[in-house]
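Treating backbone geometry as a discrete language has practical consequences that deserve illustration. The sequence in question and its structure tokens are set out directly beneath this paragraph.
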Amino acid sequence: MIQTIEITDEQKEKILHLSENHFNDLKSKDISPASLTKTISAFSNSVGGDLYIGIDENEEKGIKTRSWRGFVDEEEANGHIQIFEQLFPIGDSYSYTFLTNPSSTGLILQASIKKTLHIVKASNGSIYKRRSAQSLKLTTDAELKRLELDKGLSSFEDITLNIPLETVTDSYIIFEFMIEVVPTIEPLPWLKKQLLIRDNHPTVAATLLYSEIPQAALPKQSGIKVYRYKTKSDEGTRETLVFDPISIEGPIYTQIYEAVSTTKRVIEEEKVLRETGLEDLQYPDKALHEIVTNAVLHRDYSLASDIHIRIFDNRVEVLSPGSLPGHVTEINILNEQFARNGNLVRLVNKFPNPPNKDVGEGLNTAFNETSDLRLKKPIIKELENAVLVTISHEPLASPEKIIMEYLETNDEIHNSTARELTGVRTPDSMKSVFYKLQEKGLLEINPDPTKKGRNSTWIKKK
């Protein structure tokens, strides 16, 4: 049974004025269900999106307008529903809803599509991928291989490289590793047992882990570059670049630690002008380490691009090549785990003092530390071929100020809501903030008898 929801005129206008882009598409109800399965396939194989069926687009004198012309009833939409549920069954990845509006005629069918772990085909058997406002058919082996890598169905770390075995079997780092971790076996049989050597060639994972200079075998796709821009602008420019980018190379274990220490050194050397004068830049130590570690271990090594760490006056940006793997999205990334490079994640954790001490918990650690330091939470943004994580140097406003600003537009605030907004970690600590505001005559406990115990909230003093 598909739910029917009535929406307001304001919500209707938002739909009519949606931009058709990487995440949204609007179609007339006259379009064939088979054609629409191409759009659903494309969203499924990308980052997901919403499809609205029942919206006409008209053009007059070069001006495009949209109008609501929905299905007369649910029966009229049966052709769409049947093929959708056959190919894209209702569940965790797909949901369908009818939308109604009191001032409009007919039902709009909204299909909400999530990113899927598997590859999804349209009704014609072809595979599509979303790019901007287009659903592009994938036809070549290279395009399909690229989609498999994006979804994590295959991993570039398992590809073998045509380089001498000695690159990984006779390096300083492999002998150090064997002495510390596997002291009773020689490198070659151990690497073969770990499937890091195949057909007498080392894999990408073996090279990244145990070659002294992996960048010689994987140029332009395994390095890290550190930049310092003296600006708060959205983009860095040549004019604001303080020095030539610093290149960080070497096996990934040492590369991670060197990248973090270089970034910290550059930050600590700088002061920025604030309202109170020149101040040292603040940075969350653990958050920086975890985000850089995450970028190195989970990047897509098949892409010819380095990791870029860009230091601005008010933030650090870490740009990691490759889309989020598998079913991971910007929304669920703190709760879901999917390792694009499983061997790298597993084996770097065997090193002494591994950079990924708590496997799968790195980003949660980063978010928790920024909350503890009263800094703004990191922002994770999935771009077309990269993931951008932004760590702000700037502190949040005081919890008191955040609460009062929230109550300017809301009638009440609950302890859990206040903790989420302010970064205060425990309910008791949050209560202390409320009591301080109460003592100042700014807040009072909501007298509503239904707002007691766990449901209690605070309101502005009348």
